[in-house]
Structure to design on (238 residues):
């Protein structure tokens, strides 16, 4: 529903306001990021969604001062709590018409997500997911951010296990039916190195080149996986 509100001149603060009202009033859910704190000493996240523009890797804080420009790429990351359970998903949006490289980064990152999802079945390992993502990203000369990962999810927002977006086939925890976790690769156009801004939330690429991210919440089924956060627009993807 937020797509129609994304245009040059809009601020990420406005997008947060609209999403907050929709999550609370229409969905009857709680926006999980609002006042969320993960590590002691870090101030709680002040808004309801994350908006990460261009070289922002993740956890961008919506702001009335952040105006979108033609050619920007934008990740919106939404986590809601419904009946005590979390659902966590993010996708990329184009503001106007981004450059070819930006479009390619966004497409390849979505492909990375789907390759990772494609590796999920009982008996496979978390390393299989990371390997599938890393291989595809590097085949396109992009790099994988290592400091942030997917996560177990359910009654808790960020639970065990950590789901790395790089790794080796057959390594790591064995995947079992009934597990719920996210896959959310952050892929950089340049080097993988990141920096944290003084607000203690916003993560940016050190080289200020573009970064993209896509995320879904997955349930491991008897023979594969169900994408719990799948959108209608993704009906044809696999
Ligand atoms: N939704 C993010 C994730 O994918 C986490 C955001 S935490 C916040 O795990 F506090 F920054 F909102
Ligand atoms: Co997540
Ligand atoms: Co998320």
């Amino acid at each position: 529903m937020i797509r129609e509100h994304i245009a040059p001149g809009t601020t990420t603060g406005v997008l947060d306001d609209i999403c907050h009202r929709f999550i609370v009033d229409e969905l009857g859910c709680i926006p999980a990021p609002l006042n969320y704190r993960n590590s002691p000493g870090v101030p709680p996240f002040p808004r309801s969604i994350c908006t990460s523009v261009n070289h922002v890797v993740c956890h961008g804080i919506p702001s009335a001062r952040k105006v979108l420009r033609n050619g920007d790429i934008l990740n919106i990351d939404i986590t809601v709590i419904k009946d005590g359970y979390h659902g966590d998903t993010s996708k990329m949006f184009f503001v106007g018409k981004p450059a070819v490289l930006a479009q390619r980064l966004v497409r390849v990152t979505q492909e990375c997500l789907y390759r990772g999802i494609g590796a999920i079945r009982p008996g496979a390992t978390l390393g299989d997911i990371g390997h599938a993502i890393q291989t595809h990203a590097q085949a396109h000369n992009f790099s994988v951010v290592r400091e942030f990962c997917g996560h177990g999810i359910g009654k808790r927002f960020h639970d065990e296990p950590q789901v790395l977006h790089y790794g080796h086939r057959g390594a790591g925890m064995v995947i079992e039916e009934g597990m719920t976790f996210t896959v959310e690769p952050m892929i950089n156009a340049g080097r993988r190195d990141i920096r944290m801004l003084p607000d203690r939330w916003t993560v940016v690429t050190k080289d200020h080149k573009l970064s993209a991210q896509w995320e879904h919440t997955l349930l491991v089924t008897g023979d594969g996986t169900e994408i719990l956060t799948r959108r209608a627009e993704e009906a044809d993807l696999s």
